[in-house]
C-alpha cells in the first residue's frame, strides 16, 4: 500500500443545504448554471437555486442530455468563453456534472474539447466548478472523472483531471423525491458496481479499504431489500451518502482496480443508448463468470462478508449468482436484448469499438483480452 489521498470537495449534506451556495460561490463570480432536460424546473430545484443565486451575476445553459454529448456541450463552452464566465454550477445527475467538467476544461483550451478525451490534450487548468447533485449514483459530484460521448461516432470516453474536481457539492436528499423509480434503481446498481470495481480483484492487505467497501455493499443490499420503503428520509440520505462514498477515491486508494465492466458497459451505451447502470448489470455477471479463477478469493470473501453465505467449494459461483439475483430483485435485467436482431453483428461492433478505443487489456491484471471480451459479450447478449 502506497498512496497519496485527498478529496478536496467540500460536502454540504442534508435537507435545505442548497442555500449554502449563496456564500460558497465567490460573491464576485460570474456564474454559469448548467442543467439537463428540465426536471429541475418541475421539482422546484431550479427555483431554490435561483433564489440562492439572487445576489450573484449568473446565466444558464440547459439541455445537457443523459450520457452527455460533446456536440451539445461545445455550445456551453462557447458561452463560457464569450461571456467570461468564471464559475460553473452543475445542477443535475452524473451527466450534467460530467458535462460541466468537460465544459470547464474545454473553456481553458483553444482546440477541440474532444482532444481531452482522446488524450491529445492534457488538462492543465479549468474554470472552477461545483455541483448540486439531483441523482445519487455516479459519485461525480466529488471526484475528478467525467464520461463524455461523441454522438457522431458513437464514442463514449472518460477523462480524469484534478482541475475538474468540484470545489463543493450539495447533497440534499430531498431532491430525490421526484426521481423516477428507474433512476433510483440505477443509482443503487451503479454505486454497487463502483464498489465492486475497486474490491472484487485479488487479495491484498488493505483492511480499511476492504472493510469499508463491504460496509457500502451491505448498505446497498439493504437499501435494495427495503426499496418499497424508499419514500423515507433515512432511506434517501443513506443512498445518497453511500453512492458518494463508493466513488470518492477513498476505497480505491492503494488497492488494485478492475473497471472492465465499465469499459464494456460504456460501449453498450454508446451503441444502443442503454442506461449506464443497466449496461453494468448486463456485463458484470458474465464478466465475473468468465474471470472466476482470477477473482475466486475475493468473490468468496464477498460471499461470506456481504451475502452471509456459508463456506463451500462453489462459494465464488454462488456469490456471482447472488449478485445477479440482487439485480433481478430490483427488476434490472442482466442480458442485453435491445440490439437489433443480429447477435454476431452486435458483438463484432462492440469488439471493433473496444479495439478502436485501445480497450484490449482490461481488468486488474490487464488480462481481459479481446478474446475474453468476446466470450463475455457472447454470454451477456441474449
Ligand atoms: O435531464 P434531467 O432533467 O436532469 O433528467 C435526468 C435524466 O433524464 C433525470 N433526473 C436527474 N435528477 C432528477 C431527475 N429526474 C427527476 N428528479 C431528479 N431529481 O434522470 C435522468 C438520468 O440522469 P443522468 O445524469 O444521466 O444519470 P446518472 O447520474 O446515472 O449519470 C449517468 C452518467 O454518468 C456517467 C455515465 O457514464 C453516464 O454518462 N458516469 C460518471 C462517472 C463519474 N464521473 O465518476 C462514473 C460512472 O461510472 C459513470 O460512468
Ligand atoms: Zn458507473
TrEMBL record:
Keyword field contains Lipid metabolism:
no
Query: Which SUPFAM superfamilies does the protein's record reference?
Result: Dehydroquinate synthase-like
Boundaries of each Alcohol dehydrogenase iron-type/glycerol dehydrogenase GldA domain copy? Answer: 8-173
Instruction: Please name the GO terms that the record assigns under molecular function.
Output: alcohol dehydrogenase (NADP+) activity; butanol dehydrogenase (NAD+) activity; metal ion binding; methylglyoxal reductase (NADPH) (acetol producing) activity
The terms describing its cellular component in GO are: cytosol
Cofactor(s) of this protein: Fe cation
What InterPro entries does UniProt report for this protein, alphabetically? ADH_Fe/GldA, ADH_Fe_C, BDH-like
Keywords in UniProt for this one? Answer: Oxidoreductase
Question: What are the residue boundaries of the Fe-containing alcohol dehydrogenase-like C-terminal domain, all occurrences included?
Answer: 187-344
Q: Does the keyword Iron apply?
A: no
Entry-linked Gene3D superfamilies: 3.40.50.1970, Dehydroquinate synthase-like - alpha domain
Which top-rank group of organisms is this from?
Bacteria
Q: Which residues form a coiled coil?
A: none
**Family of this protein:** Belongs to the iron-containing alcohol dehydrogenase family.
The identity of this protein, by name, is Iron-containing alcohol dehydrogenase
Amino acid at each position: 500500500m502506497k498512496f497519496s489521498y485527498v478529496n478536496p470537495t467540500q460536502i454540504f449534506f442534508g435537507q435545505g443545504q442548497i442555500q449554502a451556495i449563496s456564500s460558497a460561490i465567490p460573491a464576485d463570480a460570474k456564474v454559469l448554471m448548467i442543467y439537463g432536460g428540465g426536471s429541475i424546473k418541475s421539482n422546484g430545484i431550479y427555483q431554490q437555486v435561483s433564489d440562492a443565486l439572487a445576489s450573484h451575476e449568473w446565466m444558464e445553459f440547459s439541455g445537457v442530455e443523459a450520457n452527455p454529448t460533446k456536440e451539445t456541450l461545445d455550445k456551453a463552452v462557447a458561452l463560457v468563453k464569450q461571456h467570461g464566465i468564471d464559475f460553473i454550477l452543475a445542477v443535475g445527475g452524473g451527466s450534467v456534472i460530467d458535462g460541466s467538467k468537460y465544459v470547464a476544461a474545454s473553456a481553458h483550451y483553444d482546440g477541440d474539447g474532444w482532444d481531452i478525451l482522446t488524450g491529445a490534450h492534457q488538462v492543465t487548468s479549468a474554470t472552477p466548478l461545483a455541483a448540486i447533485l439531483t441523482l445519487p449514483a455516479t459519485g461525480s459530484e466529488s471526484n475528478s472523472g467525467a464520461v463524455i460521448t461523441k454522438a457522431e461516432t458513437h464514442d463514449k470516453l472518460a477523462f480524469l483531471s484534478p482541475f475538474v474536481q468540484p470545489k463543493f457539492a450539495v447533497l440534499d436528499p430531498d431532491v430525490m423525491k421526484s426521481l423516477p423509480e428507474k433512476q433510483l434503481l440505477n443509482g443503487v446498481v451503479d454505486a454497487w458496481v463502483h464498489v465492486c470495481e475497486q474490491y472484487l480483484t485479488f487479495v491484498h492487505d488493505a483492511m480499511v479499504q476492504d472493510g469499508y467497501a463491504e460496509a457500502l455493499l451491505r448498505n446497498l443490499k439493504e437499501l435494495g431489500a427495503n426499496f418499497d420503503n424508499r419514500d423515507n428520509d433515512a432511506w434517501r440520505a443513506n443512498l445518497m451518502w453511500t453512492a458518494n462514498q463508493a466513488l470518492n477515491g477513498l476505497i480505491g486508494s492503494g488497492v488494485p482496480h478492475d473497471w472492465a465492466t465499465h469499459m464494456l458497459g460504456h460501449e453498450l451505451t454508446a451503441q444502443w443508448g442503454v442506461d449506464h447502470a443497466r449496461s453494468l448489470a448486463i456485463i458484470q455477471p458474465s464478466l465475473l463468470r468468465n474471470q472466476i479463477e482470477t477473482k475466486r478469493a475475493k468473490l468468496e470473501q464477498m460471499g461470506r462478508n456481504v451475502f452471509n453465505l456459508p463456506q463451500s467449494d462453489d462459494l465464488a459461483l454462488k456469490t456471482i449468482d447472488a449478485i445477479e439475483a440482487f439485480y433481478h430483485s430490483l427488476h434490472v435485467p442482466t442480458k442485453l436484448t435491445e440490439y437489433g436482431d443480429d447477435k454476431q453483428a452486435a458483438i463484432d461492433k462492440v469488439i471493433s469499438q473496444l479495439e478502436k478505443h485501445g480497450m484490449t487489456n482490461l481488468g486488474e491484471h490487464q488480462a481481459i483480452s479481446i478474446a475474453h471480451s468476446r466470450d463475455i459479450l457472447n454470454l451477456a447478449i441474449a
